[in-house]
Amino acid sequence: MPTGVLVNGICVVIGGIFGGLFGKKLPKYIVDTLPNIFGISAMSMGISLIVHVSSLSAVILALIVGTLIGETLHLETRISSGLHRILCRNQQSDRQAEFMSVMISMIVLFGFSGTGVFGALNSGFSGDHTILFAKSILDFFTAIIFGATLGYAICITAVPQTTLGLILFFCSSSLLPLLTDPMIADFKACGGMITFAVGLKMSKIKHYNVLNLVPALVLVMPFSYLWGLLPF
């Protein structure tokens, strides 16, 4: 069952409702501090996954090649632009355009983030929902913060987020019989590195176009398998 995906979507909706009701009452220093805590939490999640790596060389190679592919294809820019074209077809006032810009950013953050993509795939591969449960906590409080600005409309972002999560979950679970334990361990380690990059970005330590790293998740298991065949 895609428990983690569903819980994540529900947390965004509940957080959006809380944000619409109480978000404007939050002190500014709390709103400014929480993203740094989110970043530290994401980095901790990443480290907990990286330490179980099986073939570090294969993971690093997948991350390098995957990032080169993502950067060449401008994945993050293309996804953001595509969402903007879909949601902003009509002429809008400056205020409406700003509103839609923030909404698109939230859809990318909640649904298309490295942690979201990795968490859904990991749930399908291993049945471990830990990453998505942790992400649900972060998304809950993030939805409260942005609910103060966008109101209850932030809840709408849970729809594309949950849809994408379910697609990734069911696609990955169908591949499970083909995988070995070292391949899954290396997949988790690669996802941990991407999650760590998400944490750096959230804490404003270093900006990454995180979606451009996601192709590494597709490459890491074939690379891990091939690396295991090498005679050393």
UniProtKB/TrEMBL annotation:
It comes from the Bacteria. Keywords: Membrane, Transmembrane, Transmembrane helix. Pfam families: DUF554. InterPro entries: DUF554. The chain crosses the membrane at residues 6-23, 44-69, 99-125, 137-159, 208-230. This is DUF554 domain-containing protein. It comes from Lactonifactor longoviformis DSM 17459.
